[in-house]
Amino acid sequence: MQERLDIDDHELLRIGRLYLYSRFIPTGNMGTGPGIRCLAVLYVLHRFGRPLFRLLIRYEDRLTAVYRRLGRLRGGNSQRQG
Amino acid sequence: MSVQTLYSLDKLVRVGERWAESCRTVSFDLFDTLLIRRIHNPDLLKPAVARYIAALAREAGLDWTWPQVQSLRDRIEQEHRRATSREFEDHEACYPLFMGETLETIFGDQYTEQLLDRVTDYEIAVENSMLLPRTVLVDWLKSLRAQGKQILVVSDVYMPADFLERLIAHAGFLDHVDAVVSSADSYLAKASGKAFPLLRERYGLDYASWLHIGDNPISDGLRPAERGIRALVIRDSDEKWRKSIIKRYFNYSAGKPFWKGRTLQQLMIPLEGERRERSELYHAGYSFLSPLLCAFIHGLAEKVEQLGIRKLYFFSREGWMFKQLWERVVPHLFAGHSLPEIEYLYVSRMALAGASCAVQGLSRENADIAFLPAGNRDFRDVCRIFGLDASSLASHLERYRLGIDTVLSPLHAGYLPENRLQFNKLLRDSRFQDAVRRQTEATGLALQRYLEDVGFFRQPDVALVDIGWLGTIQRFLFDAVKHRADRPRFHGFLFAATRGIVYPSSPDNYIEGIIYDRHRFDLAASTVLYARDLFEEACRAPHPTLNGYRLTEDGYELEFRRQDDSLGRAEQEQDRMYQPLQEGILDGAGRYAAAAAVLGYRVEEMKPWLNYLLVSRLAFPRTREIAIIRHRHHLDDFHGRHQPVKAHVREQRHLWDRSLPALRFLPLLRTRYFLRSIRDRLKE
C-alpha cells in the first residue's frame, strides 16, 4: 500500500469493480462516479509511476517543453508546479 | 564550475559525502530539499489562511469572504514585489510587510500587531501541518554537523528567517543548523545569485570550501557554481511521482466530486519518517474508520456552527472517541471561530431508563423500546431495564391477568396478542404508574443533581452527540427532564439515525443522523447497518458502562458496571484487541484535520467518496478485512438472554455474522445480502 502511495492494496481496482457493479445494481450516491479515464490514469500512475518516473526524470525538461507545446496546441495553459 | 545533478537521495548523499570532505561549509535549500510538502502546490495553503482571516473579520463584525481576502493578499504581495524589483534584481516580498498591509486594509482601526502575530502563527501552523522532514537528507545534515561542518539553510521565499526557524524547529533539526537565511530579509535571492556573496560576507565563507545542495537547477545549481561553489542538485523521481499523484487527485476533484474525499485521504498517507510497520487493525482504523468518524465530527461542527449552539455533550461511552476526535479536528477546521464548550456526559440506556420514569411513569413508547431487542421477552426484562422491582409490581400485573413471566414479545414462543393488549392497559393504570414513579424517584433525583452539576440547565440549547441508532438515550434523557422549565432545547446528532422506532421529534427535541439518516434515502450510507456493533466497539471508551445514578445524602454517585464477571472480562479483552484500531483512528484524525483545513471541503462535498468507503468496506468487504476487524465481544445489558424463535434468529443474521469459510466460498454472498439490504430500505 505505501509502496504504491495508495490507501490500500489494489484500491483503484476495487473502485473500478464497484463502479462496474453500479452499472447493474444501484449502489448509492457516489456523485458523478470516478470516471473511466480518471481511473485508468490513476491506476497507471500508482502501479507503474515509480519506475516510469525513474526512467523519464532525466528527460524532464525536454518532456515539460513538449507538454507545454501540446497544451498550447490544445488551447489550454500548462502550469509549472514548483 | 562544479554542478552535479543526482536522481536519487542515496546517490546524492554518497556523492555529497565525498565532496563535503574538502568543504568547511555546507548549505542546504529548505523547501523540496530538507522539507517536503504533502500537497503539490504551496499556493494551495494560502486559502486556508484566507479562511482564517475571514473568520477573524467576521468575529470583528466585518464582512469579508475568503476569496476577497485571498485576492487582496495576492494583489498587495504583487505590489510589494514590483516595488522591490525597482531596487533589487530579485522580485522578493516580505511576509510581515505585505500581510500587515493586507490586515490593515481589512481591519482598519481594529488592526493590531497581535492580529498579525495570530495570522502569522496560523500560517506557520498550516505550513507545519503540510511539511515534513526528508529523513535521508536531515540525517545527513546532522552527521555533517557532527563532523564539525558549518551548516546553513538558505531559502528564496517570502517568509523571513525567523519564520523558517520555526518550521525547522518543528521538523526537529534546528539545533543542528548554524544559521537560517531567507531572501525575504535582504531581498537578495539565490535565483539571481546575489544571496551567495551576502552569505560569504556575513559568515566569512570561502567559496572554494563551500558545498550547496538544493532542488532548483538554476538557484541551487547554476548560480552557486558561477561563484565557484560546489553544487549538488537533487531531481528526486520518487518525490515527483508522489506529487504527480496528489496533483491528479486534486485536479480530478474539480470535475468529479467523487475524488474529493480521496484527495483528502491521499494527503493523510504517511510519508518519510511517518512510515512504520503497523498492524492491519491500525491500518483499518487509520484508512477506513478515521475518515468516516472524522467526517461525522466535521459535519457535526458544521451543524453546530450553523445553529449557534454553544455547548455540546458527548454521550458515553462512544462519545469518548467523538470528544477526542473533536479536540483533534475541529480547532483546525474552524480556526478563528469561537468554538462551543464540550463535555463528556456519563449516560447509558440502562442508567436513564429508570430516571425517565421518575416523573412521567413508564410510557407505552418506552415499554415498546424494551421489547425491541430480540432477547427481551417479559415483564422481568422490562423491570431489569427500568430498574423496577418486579415482585412488588406483581399485584398490579395480576389485576390484568398477567404474570411476571408472561411472554409479551412476538418473537418468543408462547406469545399471545391479548397479553400484550392487557399489558398496554396496565400502562394506562394510574396505580401502577404511581408505583413505578415511587420506585424510580430516587434515581430521577440523582440524575437531576448530576445534570445540574455539569451545567446542563445553564444553556438554552445543547447538542447531544451519540453514535446512534434510535436516539434512545436522548429520548430517556428528555423524558427525565422535560418537566423542568429550565431544560434546554435538545439538538441530537447521531453518527447514524436508523429510526427503527419513531422518535418523538419536536422543535425542542429532535435527532438527526449525520453520516446516515433513514429520513434521507441514502442507500450507500445505509450500509452502516451492516456492522453497527463494529462502530460501537471502535468508539467505545475503555471504562465500564454506567448502570445508574444513585442518590446520596449530599448529592449523587455514578454507578458503573462491575468488570470482574465474565462479561466484564470479555469487554476488557475486546478493549485490548481494539487498542491498535483506536490508535489508528486517533492518528488519522490529526492528518484528516490538516488535510481538510487546507482543502476546505465541506462534508457534503466528500459524501460520494465516504459512500464508496461504506459500500466497499461494509457491503463488499474482503474476507480478510472482516477477519481482522470483526469484534470478538459486544456487551449490551439492554438485551435479555432469552432465545427468540428460530425463524427470527435466521432473519437477524447479517453478512458480518457469517463464518469466514462462508464469506470466502459462498458465491454471490455479498450481492445477495446487498440486494436484501436494498429491499429492506425500499420497504421502510
pLDDT averaged residue by residue of chain A: 86
Structural class category of chain B: alpha/beta
Residue ranges of chain A: pLDDT <50 for 5 or more in a row?
Answer: 78-82
How many helices of chain B? The count is 28
CATH superfamily of the domain at 3-38 and 130-235 in chain B: HAD superfamily/HAD-like
CATH topology of the domain at 3-38 and 130-235 in chain B: Rossmann fold
Query: Stretches of chain B where pLDDT falls below 50 for ≥5 residues?
Result: none
Q: What's the CATH first level of the domain at 3-38 and 130-235 in chain B?
A: Alpha Beta
Radius of gyration of chain B: 31 Å
Description of the structure:
The complex is a heterodimer of chains A (82) and B (684). Chain A has 82 residues and is an all-alpha fold. Helix content of chain A is 59%, strand content 0%. Chain A has helices at 11-22, 36-56, 60-74. In chain A, helix 1 runs antiparallel to helix 2. Chain B is of the alpha/beta class and 684 residues long. Among the domains of chain B are: 3-38 and 130-235, 3-Layer(aba) Sandwich (Rossmann fold); 42-128; 244-274, no CATH class; 653-684. Chain B contains 28 helices and 15 strands. A 6-stranded parallel beta sheet of chain B has the order 1-8-7-2-5-6, with helices on both faces. Chain B has a 5-stranded parallel beta sheet with strand order 10-9-11-12-13. In chain B, helix 10 (217-226) links the parallel strand 7 and strand 8. In chain B, helix 13 (280-307) crosses helix 23. The chains are: A mainly alpha (82), B alpha/beta (684).
